[in-house]
Amino acid sequence: MRTVLITGSGGLIGSAAVDHFKEHFDLVIGIDNDMRAVFFGPEASTRWNVEDLQERVTNYRHHQVDIRDREAVDRIFAEHGKDIELVVHTAAQPSHDKAAQIPFLDFEVNANGTLNLLESTRAHCPEATFIFTSTNKVYGDNPNFLPLIERETRWEVDPSHPYAAEGIDEHMSIDHTKHSLFGASKVAADVMVQEYGRYFGLRTGIFRGGCLTGPRHSGAQLHGFLSYLMKCAITGTPYTIFGYKGKQVRDNIHSDDLVAMFHHFHQAPRPGEVYNAGGGRHSNVSMMEARALCEEITGNRMDMKYSDQARIGDHIWYVSDVRKFQEHYPEWTYRYGLKETLVQIFEEMTKRMH
To answer: What is the pTM for the complete model shown?
Structure first.
């Protein structure tokens, strides 16, 4: 029975992967124990999403398992063996602010949990494709040392710089920089996934995400930029901008567009390959610009607060150069733009609130 195993299946990317791959596999195995509620509180719980998947997706089988539990993870892999053709690993502690408060838990989930999955893949289904959702935080604050120019609503890279036209590519150093503890634990996992591809020959792919977004995000203050911003716009909850005059820039990729990248990679895997995966020049926005869009879509004036204290390791400007992936997989392209994605988030969130 052709099987795909997805960790973090209740989360934004995991649930998008379930919906995408349910048509391509006989069995979809989901692993998710709702740690997001532990990290960020009950409002960030993904339980609603798991229950929806269980109701809608007839070939979905859920396991309430912690990826830190090596034996429990291995039992699932052992049960299905070589039927597992694809592993999509999206489970993580995803906040660089939260990581400083829970350093052991952060590292155990992000680094040790990833190692558990890699070892079980190597032992039970070594021909499977293994996809890891990494992060642009592996570059630490190196992006902040680019020559930046302040514009009216955003920071931008000096037009003469090589990154100005298309964004930051995979050659940016991940060394000699402040990462945040979250960035460090993801670096450990990122490099480990690369090694299982280069050293052991597993079909591993590493996707260093920008801001990952979409309508099924359980946004919280410490993680889920556009989702949480839209939630505040709808509910009137005050939103605090931290530093950089609210002109910091993020690129945003729709969850379905990222999962489509995973699918293309699975069809022709390149072991140990690393790709920057974000909205690129196609879809990026500053805090000020995102606020204006949320106000336009909701019709509400937002209650915004400002703190001069920037978050440690936060990026002032980050736009992903996705040309390497597009060169390797030319059939892939973006389907969703920024405003379209925000409208989807608004509609889904409004539906869930009523």
So the answer is: 0.96
